[in-house]
Amino acid sequence: MTDAKQRVQETFSKNAEKYVTSNTHAKGKDLALMVEWSEPNSDWISLDIATGGGHVAKTFSPHVNKVVASDLTKEMLENTASHLGEYKNISYEVADAEQLPFSDQSFDLITCRIASHHFPNPKSFIREVSRVLKQDGKFIMIDNVAPEETELADFMNTLENMRDTSHVRCLPVSEWQKLCKKYHLHVLKSRTRKKTFDFHDWVNRTVEDESTKQKVSSYLRDADPTMKDYFQIKETPEDIEAFSIDEWMVLCEKLPTT
């Protein structure tokens, strides 16, 4: 296992409960929108990759026959399973998003929400999604994305990594689009929106020591005007209050591969 994946396991095993209760992950209109866009059928078998707190699996459970909630971190899955015991059609599988332990064309629907920036090799992730997805199956992904401009993208990824060492890289939309096309995932619908974080809720989710919190705060406070404007950094003389990043939501359909 790579160092990056070990850092993911370490981070999420320590913070499993925080990702169940996090407002950013547990709430949001995007959960209902995922159902609306994908139009699931009651006989579908669905896979949620990097399920985390299980919020997507829980959302889709009433709409499909079965949901497989997968995650790289065993402790995260165990904690999530304890919270979702009443959802009898959800099963749990320890799985690497870049090397899924499932047969070809196993799923009618695959979902992945706010997770792919932790994957060291997005190409392998998308290739695996396409492999285990049935022909004409649906894939819906939501994740933080980097701006197309290199300087803005570098600022964002540096910030994320300072706060969370398991962060690998947020890709720009153009890179995701190329990967989807390469692996026969035809984009049916997409949207980009600004997502605002309460600074303290965001930083406290993964950071425990005050020195690191101050380092992250200073990075935002010392940003040049272009960065402060793009990321909508809100501050007082004493503190950082909030900032915003871009989030992309995409619905794809798997095309014939021959």
UniProtKB/TrEMBL annotation:
Q: Which GO terms describe its molecular function?
A: S-adenosylmethionine-dependent methyltransferase activity
Q: Which biological process, per GO, is one annotated for this protein?
A: methylation
Q: Any idea where the Methyltransferase type domain is?
A: 47-141
Official protein name in the record: Methylase
From the record, what ranges are coiled-coil? none
Q: Which family does it belong to?
A: Belongs to the methyltransferase superfamily.
Q: Which UniProt keywords apply?
A: Methyltransferase, Transferase
What is any Pfam family matched here? Methyltransf_11
Q: Which InterPro entries match?
A: Diverse_substrate_MTase, Methyltransf_11, SAM-dependent_MTases_sf
Q: Which CDD domains match?
A: AdoMet_MTases (cd02440)
